Amino acid sequence: MTLSLAQARAIIDAALAKARADGAQPLAVVVLDAGAHPVAFAREDGASLFRFDIAKAKASGALGMGADTRVLAARAASNPVFFQSIAAATGQMAFSPGGVLIHDAAGMLIGAVGISGDTGECDEACAIAGIAAAGLFHGDRK
Amino acid sequence: MTLSLAQARAIIDAALAKARADGAQPLAVVVLDAGAHPVAFAREDGASLFRFDIAKAKASGALGMGADTRVLAARAASNPVFFQSIAAATGQMAFSPGGVLIHDAAGMLIGAVGISGDTGECDEACAIAGIAAAGLFHGDRK
Amino acid sequence: MTLSLAQARAIIDAALAKARADGAQPLAVVVLDAGAHPVAFAREDGASLFRFDIAKAKASGALGMGADTRVLAARAASNPVFFQSIAAATGQMAFSPGGVLIHDAAGMLIGAVGISGDTGECDEACAIAGIAAAGLFHGDRK
Amino acid sequence: MTLSLAQARAIIDAALAKARADGAQPLAVVVLDAGAHPVAFAREDGASLFRFDIAKAKASGALGMGADTRVLAARAASNPVFFQSIAAATGQMAFSPGGVLIHDAAGMLIGAVGISGDTGECDEACAIAGIAAAGLFHGDRK
Fold this sequence. Notes:
The structure is a homotetramer. By secondary structure, chain A is an alpha+beta fold. Chain A has a single domain, classed as Haem-degrading domain (Beta-Lactamase, 2-Layer Sandwich). In chain A, 48% of the residues lie in helices and 19% in strands. The first copy, chain A, has helices at residues 5-22, 51-65, 69-78, 80-90, 120-133, and strands at residues 28-33, 38-43, 99-103, 109-116, 137-138. Chain A has a five-stranded antiparallel sheet. In chain A, strand 3 (99-103) and strand 4 form a beta hairpin. The radius of gyration of chain A is 14 Å and the shape is globular. The two termini of chain A are 15 Å apart. The mean pLDDT of chain A is 95. Chains in contact: A-B, A-C, A-D, B-C, C-D. At the B-C interface, helix 2, helix 3 and helix 4 of B face helix 2 and helix 4 of C.
């Protein structure tokens, strides 16, 4: 299955709905396909300028390393020099929760969500809510 | 006025509605704020991988030079070496119609739309339709 | 279908076999997946230093724009400023024959081959031979 | 001696043979020449997207600093700010074992292997096995 624009928008809408219900800070949400290319993006009013770049770096970091950024952030905490060096080498990684892999019902990796704007925990919770609302499955499934 | 996410999405939705009505190739549509930072983006199913980059380079090129890319493309045709040099220097310009400045009712520049996927003329027509549908004004107004 | 390493190597081996049979200059051959990430690469002895970069830019240019670089090169010849600007914006395009899209039997785009080292015509002929030898289909099929 | 494509492929094949025998995670293996330019590369099915970039950054980091990345990672742990600054300055270093210098029988430096996909220890063990299988000598020899 290829991630469709309709699915990507469903993920974004549900993630932002949760953010508003929870009173989160203004968020930016990007959905990338399995090759780490953008499918859809939205930045809420009031979110700061680099939120696109950070959200995208979370999502592409997850895809690039094959794990949610929650997992990568934990690994990075115990091996900071290596993770900082690959962040510099790729220019496409942000190590904080909120980059979440998306799988289809068959377990195939079809993309990733990246969210930035509130705490990593909040960002990630909104990402997971968005994926579930679109009828897809987040990183833990694989 | 600051360009809102709601306005950016209205632009994208109307641009894509026109694209579908006109039978255009699959498009990518990005809306940037006045500082050239992404507010919203959508890439239709079947659009190729670099459509985000090209759409963004159209919109940021328009903002960076203060003119729609239709105008910039014409200037570039008569002065190619200079325009190629600034494309290389910035890495954020694409000289083909489809990068269109957005003004509010007071004539203030509030952002730009960039569209890529079909001919420059088609891309630009969809951008202008999107801006008008959102109750905003395209580059010609200024 | 996802392009496998075995398929990528079969493409490279057959492309290089044709190059040797035809007395081509030393070639570099890269195979990218559908997201433009490298799967396999080989640079023949005597090929110059930037052949990887050029071969990769052909393959990623084809994927990024959704057409073989033979087609893109022809378009670029009639619209050089635009194509040079998007080459600068993406940093991942080389406009000469030798970047060829790969489709599976169902017509799905699964990657691209990029070859550099001889003339564009020779590079492309080797790419097409490689794809065919792997039981896959080149860009013309879609 | 210049590193040949045949030698590079022998290194990759033996490294991957060891990886499969040991049940390693899917790996990416790159071989660079003495000027840090790619000679050959393979990414196993299931390896994540950035494995090429990381493997290449290990190999180019080793060549760039004149030591295997095991040595560089140890130095970086005791002087992180400097090593992070050079990682950022070059964009071509990854400080984890798995980047291994290649010497010929005369002790001349002829290239480097970079492997990414499993632990640094596993990656490095596969690199060393590959170099030995090709009749060449790894970093410790110098």
